[in-house]
């Protein structure tokens, strides 16, 4: 097994969940990532720490929970959440370890800044966020890779926008779809309606758009992977492909149900034997990625990281699986504080507001996809789902006496996690950067 330090590429996209052919979705055409999975290691039960963009990415790149690293909501515009000043990004950690560190495309894990300021804040040698769509980002990555190859080991972080919703001239009135002005819908292999949504004609049209956007992203990812082969560095390069959270559909993105938290996570590193199409079903969180990479490189992670390394799992050696994983939502479009704990068998969700049962990520006045559950219901204090009998989390068991002991046990686990990691929700409501800025203007 190699002891050399590999090049590291983290390739990520928006809003994908596990909507790839290699994760059992036969109507989605993703030949490049399916081939990558067949040549690497596919992690079948990886989850995000949060079901929205910035908090999840902040965990992915710091190894710490959103409520601890400062990013409890979106980082752009007036949302303005940011990493705490002392938070350390993977790009900076690897640069300190001797890596050439470059960020290209989507950056959404800390407060938006000019590229030079962003590089200084996070510790990158170079940042270019001028392009975020998949094809231009792939162009940018393919341009940089020849310069990076063959020198000191490099860390390359590449993010693309698709399959995020994006407005375009072809959108039906009152909707925001997935195709913008540059993607074609794809129903060549049929259309798969997720089981938590109603199967309607309008849903089929929207899912065809989503499938087209995923296929478009897959083509861009394939170009980057092909460039590694052309440069002769694929064997010595660790590539991790992932996404921030689940699909931008009702009861998925912006919810703590599995469709909101599930993420694709595929890893390949031929020189260490991370190949062959292996698949693992251990419960993992994207907060575990930074500890894994640091252990691989022999870098002391210190005492501040919240994730657990799964290096032993990838190496085929000793690994003690997580008994549970956690998830959180605080702010996205609005304040909707929720926390959850998920085991192999159960999901418990604790709700801290009287918001609607789910936050709608359709960004549309007219919803083409609609959930099978009542959309106008409000959060109960606690929800419980039996994932073995009810994998789509449609039947809440929290109020049933037969499940009272399970509810109390999982509430205790959730409370312990919140207390140990310093979750501010235990002390009361959390205010947003916008709240604080507006208050300051009032009291000047």
From TrEMBL:
Keyword Hydrolase: yes
Keywords of this entry: Hydrolase
Pfam families: Sulfatase (PF00884)
Domain of life: Bacteria
Residues annotated as domain Sulfatase N-terminal: 6-299
InterPro entries (alphabetical): Alkaline_phosphatase_core_sf, Sulfatase, Sulfatase_N
Recorded GO MF terms: arylsulfatase activity
Annotated coiled-coil segments of the chain: none
Family affiliation: Belongs to the sulfatase family.
Descriptive protein name: Arylsulfatase A-like enzyme
Organism from which the protein derives: Actinophytocola algeriensis
């Amino acid at each position: 097994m190699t002891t050399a330090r590999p090049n590291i590429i983290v390739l990520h996209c928006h809003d994908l969940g596990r909507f790839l052919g290699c994760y059992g979705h036969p109507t989605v055409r993703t030949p490049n990532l399916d081939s990558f999975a067949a040549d690497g290691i596919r992690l079948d039960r990886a989850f995000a720490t949060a079901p929205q963009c910035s908090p999840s990415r902040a965990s992915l790149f710091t190894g710490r929970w959103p409520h601890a690293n400062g990013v409890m909501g979106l980082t752009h515009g007036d949302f303005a959440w940011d990493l705490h000043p002392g938070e350390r990004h993977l790009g900076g950690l690897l640069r300190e370890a001797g890596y050439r560190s470059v960020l290209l495309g989507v950056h959404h894990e800390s407060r938006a800044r000019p590229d030079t300021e962003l590089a200084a804040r996070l510790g990158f040698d170079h940042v270019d966020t001028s392009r975020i769509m998949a094809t231009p980002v792939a162009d940018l990555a393919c341009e940089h890779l020849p310069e990076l190859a063959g020198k000191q080991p490099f860390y390359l972080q590449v993010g693309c926008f698709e399959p995020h919703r994006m407005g375009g001239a072809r959108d039906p009135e009152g909707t925001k779809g997935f195709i913008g002005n540059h993607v074609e819908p794809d129903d060549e292999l049929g259309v798969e309606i997720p089981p938590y949504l109603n199967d309607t004609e309008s849903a089929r049209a929207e899912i065809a758009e989503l499938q087209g956007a995923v296929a478009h992203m897959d083509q861009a990812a394939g170009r980057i992977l092909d460039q590694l082969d052309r440069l002769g560095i694929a064997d010595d390069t660790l590539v991790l492909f992932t996404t921030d959270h689940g699909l931008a559909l009702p009861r998925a993105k912006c919810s703590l149900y599995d469709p909101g938290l599930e993420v694709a996570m595929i890893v390949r590193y031929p020189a260490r034997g991370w190949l062959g199409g292996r698949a693992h079903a251990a419960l993992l969180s994207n907060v575990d990625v930074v500890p894994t990479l640091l252990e691989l490189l022999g870098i002391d992670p210190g005492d501040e990281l919240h994730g657990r390394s799964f290096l032993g799992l990838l190496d085929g050696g000793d690994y003690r699986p997580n008994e549970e994983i956690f998830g959180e939502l605080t702010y996205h479009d609005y304040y909707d504080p929720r926390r959850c704990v998920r085991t192999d068998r159960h999901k418990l969700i604790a709700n801290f507001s009287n918001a609607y049962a789910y936050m709608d990520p359709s960004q549309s006045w007219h919803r083409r996809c609609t959930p099978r559950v009542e959309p106008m219901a409000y959060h109960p204090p606690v929800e419980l789902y039996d994932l073995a009998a009810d994998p789509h989390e449609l039947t809440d068991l929290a109020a049933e006496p037969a499940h009272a002991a399970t509810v109390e046990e999982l509430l205790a686990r959730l409370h312990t996690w919140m207390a140990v990691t310093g979750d501010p929700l235990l002390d009361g409501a959390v205010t947003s950067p916008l709240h604080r800025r507006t208050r300051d203007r009032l009291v000047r």
